[in-house]
Design a protein that fits this description.
With 87 residues, the protein is an alpha/beta fold. It has one domain (4-36, 43-85): 3-Layer(aba) Sandwich (Oxidized Rhodanese, domain 1), CATH 3.40.250. It contains four helices and four strands, in the order E-H-E-H-E-H-E-H. It has helices at residues 12-17, 28-32, 55-66, 78-85, and strands spanning 4-8, 24-25, 46-51, 72-77. A four-stranded parallel sheet has the order 2-1-3-4. The radius of gyration is 12 Å and the shape is globular.
Length: 87
């Protein structure tokens, strides 16, 4: 497992249009249901969340924090991610 995971919290139709290479799509509704896709991810893994403006990723970070994740980054949007991480 990677030390960093990019999580696109936009809706699946937005993700389908374009997303960061290697990102997984976990919309806020799925996060609020406990995000089963993240169940086996160590809680200290760096999770870099992004959406369109940073608002959904920021809100999603609060839920993930309550689930015990400790290394959360608001990457704002896919363009910021691509520029900062070179992906």
């Amino acid at each position: 497992m990677s030390d960093r995971i990019f999580i696109d919290v936009r809706e699946p139709y937005e993700f389908a249009r374009d997303h960061v290479k290697g990102a997984i799509n976990v919309p806020p509704a799925e996060i609020m249901r406990g995000a089963p896709v993240l169940a086996d991810i160590p809680k200290n893994t760096e999770l870099v969340l992004y959406c369109l403006s940073g608002a959904r990723s920021n809100a999603s970070m609060q839920y993930l924090r309550r689930m015990g994740f400790t290394n959360l980054v608001n990457g704002v949007n896919k363009n910021h991610i691509r520029a900062k991480y070179g992906v």
